[in-house]
Amino acid sequence: MTVFLLLLALAIGTYCVAVIEHWASTGRLQAAGPIHSTLRLLGQESLLPRKPDQLFFETAPVLFLIGALLSLAVIPLAPELIATDLATGALFFNAALTYVLVALIMAGWGPDGAYGMIGGWRYLGQLIAYAMLVVMPITAVAMRAESLSTVAIVTSQQDLWNIAYQPLGFVLFAFAGMAMAFIPPFDLPVATGDLAGGVEAEYTGVRRIIFRLGRMVLILSVASAISVFYLGGWLGPWLPGWVWSAVKILTIAALMLAGGRLLPRIREATLLAWCWKLGIPLALANIFLVGIIVLVVPL
C-alpha cells in the first residue's frame, strides 16, 4: 500500500510541477498542458544524429530519470510514507543526484553536436560551483538533528523550522538546488537563447519525453529536499502530514520556477566565482553559528 501511495504521489507531483513550469515560462495556467506536450512529442519522429555515440545517446535520458527518482527514495511525505529511511539519507540524496551530472555530460557528448557538448560542460561548471553549497548546509541541518536520517531531520524541527533556525543555510541551499535542477537563471545547460536547447537539443520524440520527465522529477526532488531540510516536511497543524508536504513542495517549486525567471542569467564562470568566494565562506559561517546555537541554546 505504501508503494502504491508513493507512486501515486510521484505521478501527481510530477504532473503538477509540469503544469507550474508551463505557467512560469508562458504565463498561461493550463491543467492539460503537459498532456498536449506529451502527445505532440509522441507524434514526433525520433531522429538520430548523423554520428552519435549510440550508448551514451540512448542511455543519458534514462539515467537522468533514474538519478532523479533515486533521490526521492529518502524523502518522507509523512512519518510512515517514505520509500526507505536510510541512516545516511541526507547524504544519499546528494549522492543520487550526482548521476544527473553523468547523464547530462553523456547527453551532451552522445549526439556529437557542439550545442549539446557545450551544455554538458556548462553543467559540470555549475556542479563545481554549487556542490559545496549543497553538502555544507546539509551538514548544518544534520548537526541540529544529530542525524543524517531525513525523518529525524523533520522531527527535529517540531518546535522551530530550520528556515528560522538557520536562514542563511536555507538561502544557500535554495540557490544551490535551483542550479542543481538548472532552473533559470541557472539554466545554462539548456539555454534556448544561445544553445537552442543545449543538452536536450538533439533529442526528439520519446527520448525527449523521458528527458523532460526526468527534469520535472528533478525539480520535484529539489523542492522536496528544501521542504524536508528547512520547512518541517510534514509538520503542520490541523491537516494530515502528507497534505502539508504536498502544499510545501508545490509552493517551493512554484516560487523557484517563477521567481528564478525574474533574475538575470549569469555566466558559469561568474557563478563559480560567487560560490567559491562568497558562498562557501557564508556556508562555513552558517555551520559555525549553528554549532554555537546547538551548544548554547539547544532547540
Note down, in words, how this protein is organized.
- With about 300 residues, the chain is mainly alpha-helical.
- It has 13 helices and no strands.
- Helix 9 (about 165-180) packs antiparallel against helix 11 (about 205-230).
- About 45% of the residues are buried.
- The model has no long low-confidence stretch (mean pLDDT about 85).
Question: How are the SSEs placed, and which strands pair?
Answer:
Layout lengths: L1 H25 L6 H10 L11 H19 L16 H8 L1 H12 L4 H32 L4 H6 L6 H4 L1 H14 L11 H4 L9 H26 L10 H19 L8 H29 L3
Helix pairs in contact: 1-11, 1-12, 2-11, 3-4, 3-5, 3-11, 5-6, 6-9, 6-13, 9-11, 11-12
Structural key phrases:
single chain, 299 residues, mainly alpha, globular
H/E topology pattern = HHHHHHHHHHHHH
Q: Output the radius of gyration.
A: 19 Å
Give me the secondary-structure category: mainly alpha
Low-confidence stretches: none
Mean pLDDT: 83
| Beta-strand share of residues | under 5%
Q: How helical, in percent, are the residues?
A: 55-70%
What is the β-strand count?
0
Alpha carbon gap, first and last residue? 35 Å
Number of helices: 13
Q: Provide the domain count.
A: 1
Mind summarizing the main beta sheet? none
Could you say which overall geometry the principal axes of the C-alpha atoms support? globular
